[in-house]
Amino acid sequence: MAALSVANVAEAEHALSSPLNNPEAIYKANLDMKGFDREVVRVILLDSQLRCMTKMEIFKGTANESVAYPREILRPAITHRSFGFVLVHNHPCGHARPSAADVMLTKRIVKGARILGLTFLDHVIVGQTIAGCPGYFSFQEAELL
Question: Rounded to whole angstroms, how far apart are CA atoms 109 and 144?
Answer without folding.
Answer: 12
